[in-house]
Structures are given as structure tokens and as C-alpha cells.
Amino acid sequence: MAREGGSQLRGGQLRKHILLAAKNVFLETGFERASMDAVAASAGTSKRSLYAHFESKDKLFLAVLDLVRELYLGKLRTPDVYADDPVEAVTLFCGRFQQLLTWEPQAQTCRLCISAAERLPDSAKAYYDAMFAVMYTRLAEYLAAQYEMDRRKAAALAEDLVGRTVLPRVFRVLLKVEPAIEETPGTAAVENVELEPIRLVVSAALGSRE
Q1: Is the pTM higher than 0.90?
Q2: Alpha-carbon span 178 to 155, nearest angstrom
Q3: Which residue has the higher pLDDT, 28 or 92?
């Protein structure tokens, strides 16, 4: 039945269907053990159709990362949508970033990219650009606009804030020192994150700039 469902899709719909199936296969088995046969079976489509869209496992993996990026950025958004007050906006934005990166499927994806980094350095860079570089840019642009800061200073401040408010918990989750978030993040609320410690750091860093 899955094969019938997959074969009924065409063009962009089939491509996205394959990518979602491939994402699950990569997460379940790891990059090295994942096979195009397994992806085709999971997607309910033929290997011929799979190779018509993706000529190799490497390119399929990179396309999966593009899909993850699209889904992730749609949930992250930009600081200005979270609150009118800059301190609260940055607090919630950093909280959202932490929430997304410590969500179990995202933590698994990060571990997967780390494990594949030597074989596919481009995939590791693509993941970093999607998950971190875009976040730093959005935060830095917001800080520069709100506080009329030089872009380089805003970028340095953004990295400092994320380093103190987000990354410690992310590393603990990646190393399984702390449990990951099981619930799928909603479209707006920042949940399963301790916001008060983040707020204290952000207030101390930005309060003097008011």
C-alpha cells in the first residue's frame, strides 16, 4: 500500500515524500548503514524513481538537510515577532533556538551530521549554515537595528548570547547527559525551556544599552 501511495505522487510532491522518508531512514540507521533500497522501500517508490530525483545517497542526504533547514527556519522565525521589548524578544528567540535544537529529532540530526562529517564535509557545513549561521545572522541583524550597533559588534554579541544561553544545554543533550525534548515544538509557544536564566543573561548584556 505504501508503494501504491508513493507511486501516485508526482513531481514536487513525490520529491518531498521521498525526502521525508529518507530523513527517517537516515535517523533510524545512520548515514553509513542507510541505503537507497531502504529509502525507496520506505517511500513506497521504485529505485528508478528515486534515482531520477537523487543520483546518489550523498546528494539525497544534502537534500534532506535542505528540507530540515526549511522546516526549522519556519519554526524559528525572527526576534521581532516574539515581543516588542528587545530584551524579551531576544530572550524568547534564544529560548526558541534552544527548544528546536534540543528537540529529539533535531538532536538526532545533529549527531548524524557529526558522524558523517569526515565523509561528507559539505553536509556538516550545510547543517551548520542551516542551524547556526542563519540564527546568528537573524539575531545580529536584530541587535544592530535595535541598538544602532556596528555589524561586527552585533555579530559578536549574538554569538556571546547564544554561547551562554543556548549551547550549554544543547551540548548536554547531544551527549545524552540530559534528555531531549520529546514534544514537537508548536508554531508559537516556547515550551520545555527555562526562560528565566536566559532572561537574566540577556538583561545583563542588553540592559546597559537601553
Answers
A1: no
A2: 29
A3: 92
